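name: query_chain
kind: protein
chains: 1
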Amino acid sequence: MLAAVCVGVVAFVALRPVSQNALPPSQRVSQPADNLRVAVRPNVNYGGDFTMVDHNGATVTQDSWPGKYKLLFFGFSHCPDICVGAVVKIGDVLEKLPAETTAQIAPLFVTADPARDTPEVMKAFLADFDSGIIGLTGSAEQAEHLIKLFRVYAKRTENAAAEDGYVIDHSSYFYLLSPDGKLAMFRESDRAEDIAHDLAVLIDD
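structure:
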C-alpha cells in the first residue's frame, strides 16, 4: 500500500501545503452568530455541471442527488493513509448526526486517479467503510473537469517505488456544496465532532 504525499489547496488562493492549514487573513470569513466551529464559508456560488460514473457503474451528474448537500473528498484508492482516514472520518461524521440530517447528505469520494480507480476498484475500496459513501470515477477528462470545478490540487508524481510507478499528490479538504451551490470547506485534520456540529448548523438552519 502506498502513502500519498498530500498537498493542500484553499479555494480562491494559491496552492499551499496541507501543513499550512491556516487561511490567509484576506480569505478568512467571519463566522455567523450560530457559532460554526471549523467551517470555512466563502459566500459564493461553487461547483457546476459534471458527469461521472459511480462505484456501481451508473452514470451520475450534478443532478443525481436533488435537494441534497454534497459532501466531497478528492483522493484515490491507492492512498492508504490520508484518503483512508478521510473516508473513515466521513463515516464518523455521519454517525454523529441525527438521521434526518444524514438523509440530506450525499457523501462522495471522488477519484483523482481515474486510470486505476475503475468502478470495480472503487467499489472494493469503499466496501470496508460506511455503506452510504458513493465513489465517483470516470474518464480522465470527466475527473479532471470535476477536479477543476472545485479548484482541487491533484498531480501525478512519478515514484519508482510506488505501485505502477506513480502516486497522486492531492489536496485534503472536505467540500460541502449546498443544493443552491454555496460552499463550505473543512480541513481533513478537523475533528469529526466539529465537522458534524457545523454540518448540523449549515443544513438544519
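note: DSSP finds five helices and nine strands in the chain.
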